[in-house]
Amino acid sequence: MKKYLPIGSVVLLKEADKKVIIVGLMQNATETETTWDYCALPYPEGIFNSINLSLFNEDQIENIFFIGFQDTEALEFLSGLSSPSGINPN
Which of 6, 52, 65, 85 places its Cα 20 to 30 Å from the Cα of 41? Predict the structure, then answer.
């Protein structure tokens, strides 16, 4: 079962020199019909236009700097994403 990092986690991707902050999970790229594990924005700047949104999978993460906030609601959601039946967040 895949485990997902919570929203707000800060990571460095392989072959990158800038950290990103995770802002979404299980994102669908409609133009390619691909589902990505995460979407993120540059850290610490955040959003300044839609072009700076990154889509990536777990295997592209080189280093985890911070694990985002987790409460009961977030843990239940993440558990659903990790379950075989999954949750459709869309």
Answer: 85
Q: Give the distance from CA 42 to its chain's centroid.
A: 12
Q: Using CA atoms, how far apart are residues 86 and 78, in angstroms rounded to an integer? A: 9
| The 34-42 sheet, strands edge to edge | 54-56, 34-42, 20-29, 10-13, 61-66
Report the phi/psi class of residue 28: left, alpha or beta, with left for phi > 0 and alpha for psi in -120 to 50. Answer: beta
Residue 56 near residue 38, CB atoms below 8 Å: yes
pLDDT tens track for 16-45 = 999 999 999 988 877 888 999 999 999 999
